[in-house]
Amino acid sequence: MSKEISESAATVLETAYVFRAKVAGDDLSVDDRRALEEWLRADEEHRRAFERTDLAWRRLAHLSEDHFVESGERVPSSVEPVAQDAPPPPAPSFFGGFFGPRFGLATALAGALLAAIFFAPAAAPPPPPREAVPETVHHRSPVAELRSVTLSDGTVATLGAESEIAVCFGGASRAVELVAGDVYFDVATDSDRPFTASADGLTARVVGTRFSLRRGATGVRLAVAEGWVAAVPEAPAGEGAVEPELLVGAGQGVSFPRGGGLSPVYQIPPEDVAAWRRHELIYAGAALADVAADADRYYSGKITVDDDAGALTLHAAFDGGDIEGLLAAVEEALPVRVERRGDGSIHLRKEPGR
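RE: above sequence
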């Protein structure tokens, strides 16, 4: 950041305005974004102040320069000279030094926002603007690496190796789609906006909890570390019957195979939920197709498996950083041959007679 934002420099509300103006000015650097994320996590009051600021900002943002011209008012500007009898703007050195003159309308809105909150008479608030269609934001992790992302509501999403999520938050909902791989959510509580995470026909609905979702070769797996999650399967196309949702509690998991219904709830130690976060790959009766798909996301080449070998099941635990050791253990435990090809890819083939 070009200038440190701290509680000693401004009130919580003023700090929220600074961050919101940086976002509106499209000048939020990597350091600024990290500072915002840390500030939001530091105190629940910070999050509420930022949400209040965001709402007020969106109510003011629809005022274009035409509105001021039509009403006969002077268009506010951060670079125009201030009349001698005009009251000074709040905290001029702080806001001016942080933004500079190039922010134009964003800075003007920040000043209007402060005035609206601190000095406006008690009057009926203007009607909220029509909510825009929420934008979908994608987050991805590279091969063999994990990535932690703090979403706009304070939820922390940890992505497994070579994974991807699509985030779409609106005024009344928080929706995330697992496009590929693994994700573990530490969901921020917001009773007014339920949080949903979906993958391949299965939706997990929560208010605030910790759980993981894995999109594998044979289907989706959901496991809960804390709280409760409602597992809601998608109704098959063309069928009127809807499979009832299933409540999954802490230390429990459920599978949703492709072409089938929800499995019965099974037990899983809470500490083993998303064990891949500590680079452990743990399997209890998993199909080799899923094991190979997981290994592929930790391998620089390509790992494939034929249908016969993929249907075999495995009980084992592996180090995510030791794919060669995983392959050697699979070859020893199952009737499978590991074939290494000239292009660096690996194919797992069922070996008859073993």
